[in-house]
UniProtKB/TrEMBL annotation:
CDD domains: MFS_NepI_like. Keywords: Cell membrane, Membrane, Transmembrane, Transmembrane helix. Residues 2-379 form the Major facilitator superfamily (MFS) profile domain. Signal peptide: none annotated. Pfam families: MFS_1 (PF07690). The keyword Membrane applies. This is MFS transporter. The chain crosses the membrane at residues 44-63, 70-91, 103-121, 133-152, 158-180, 201-223, 235-255, 267-285, 291-313, 334-352, 358-376. It comes from Streptomyces tabacisoli.
Length: 405
């Protein structure tokens, strides 16, 4: 694995840690800024809002900036947002700081995915992107539990300082190891926005919002499911969430080579298996060992979807893949919000703690339907150039042709 991919994975690790560690530190944060725990939960929404807004906004602003310089600027903003979170004296300033920390999230992943796809041989582009995403999945195994434990022992501000340090390390690694990648002559905000109007890009984003919403409908309520139905103690849920992260890591490792071989079939299979796993979890949630096995598989299938969606958007955006790649992460955060909302609805309706599994399966099937429609209506041929090079770029910077049908 090139050291540049490792640098990108470190960025993803920091992003994954700061995104999810807040959830585990809500009681400490609430006490520190003198608000209730439910009110402190709005900080999670502030970060997600920053992701949704920042992905298209910052990639648009940086449309003419060379990729390496843009990565450094975005990582610097990430460090600034987390340092501001650690220093925030009140809830209002902390809310603003979490929004600021979320702004570069999608743009970093979008630009990073384009850069990663151009660092390797053409037939390994998806594997390179999936290796960057490994940082995000490893964060769920190591970074989030460690950040939560650090915040509980030394105070919640220490967790944000630790993430800021990770960001500084990533900034140094990017500066040293990522090569310069010039923008083509046609790069610019209008070029990127024109690519976003492609029907296949729109269908890809819709697939991410709906299909991945099924994943989050369950993930958002996994802890109460485990405590109320499986009988797992509160103190053990962190280990179970780490097991979920192990499944996500396995799915990411599988996604790269499978996507390089056959993009759309990998997406179809991932969504179908995710739906099947969610239905299975509805029945296995009451037994510890079957429940844990199913949870691991759900994590794997959720991650298996991420890489093919990312590569598909980059392929269909043609010579302007950066905004499409970044907007994918806005779509995932909308899926997070929408899936959690739908899961909460079925629980509030009195259908029980296991009901989000069935709601999530319906969303996954709907996402599969959108993916199939996109595949059937795709007139772009059997292969597409993923994150295709803009005019003016060298042949060595051109990414892989990936089979999409």
């Amino acid at each position: 694995m090139p050291l540049a991919l490792l640098a990108l994975a470190v960025v993803a690790f920091g992003i994954g840690t700061t995104e999810f560690a807040t959830m585990g530190l809500l009681p400490q944060i609430a006490d520190g800024v003198h608000v209730s725990v439910p009110h402190a939960g709005n900080l999670v929404s502030a970060y997600a809002l920053g992701v949704v807004v920042g992905a298209p906004l910052l990639t648009g602003i940086g449309a003419r900036i060379p990729h390496k310089r843009l990565l450094l600027l975005l990582t610097g903003l990430f460090v600034l947002g987390n340092a501001a979170s650690a220093l925030a004296p009140s809830f209002g300033t902390l809310f603003a700081a979490r929004f600021l920390a979320g702004l570069p999230h999608g743009a970093l992943f979008g630009v990073g995915a384009v850069v990663a796809s151009r660092l390797v041989a053409p037939d390994r582009a998806a594997r390179a992107v999936s290796k960057m995403f490994l940082g995000l999945t490893v964060a769920n195994i190591v970074g989030v539990p460690a950040g939560t434990a650090l915040g509980q022992q030394l105070g919640w501000r220490a967790a944000y300082w630790a993430v800021a340090v990770i960001g500084v390390v990533a900034l140094a690694a990017l500066a040293v190891f990522v090569p310069h990648q010039p923008r083509g002559e046609q790069s610019g905000i209008r070029h990127e926005l024109r690519a976003m109007g492609n029907k296949q890009v729109a269908l890809g984003l819709a697939t991410a919002v709906v299909g991945f919403g099924g994943f989050f409908a369950v993930y958002s309520y996994l802890v109460p499911m485990l405590t109320h139905l499986t009988g797992i103690s509160d103190s053990s849920t962190t280990l179970v969430l780490a097991l979920y992260g192990v499944g996500m890591t396995a799915g990411t490792l599988l996604a790269g080579p499978l996507t390089d071989r056959a993009l759309r079939p990998t997406l179809y299979g991932g969504l179908a298996l995710l739906a099947a796993a969610l239905v299975t979890f509805y029945f296995t949630v009451h037994s510890t060992v079957p429940a844990l096995l199913t949870i691991t598989f759900i994590g794997a299938m959720g991650s298996l979807i991420t890489t093919p969606v990312q590569m598909l958007l980059m392929a269909k955006a043609k010579n302007a893949p950066t905004m499409a790649a970044a907007s994918n992460h806005s779509a995932f955060n909308l899926a997070n919000a929408g899936g959690a909302w739908i899961g909460g609805l079925v629980i509030s309706a009195g259908w029980g703690w296991a009901a989000p599994n069935l709601a999530g399966a319906v969303l996954a099937v709907a996402g599969l339907g959108l993916a199939l429609v996109a595949g059937l209506t795709d007139r772009g041929g059997r292969s597409s150039e993923v994150a295709a090079a803009s005019p003016g770029e060298s042949a060595e910077q051109r990414p892989a042709p990936v089979e999409t049908s």
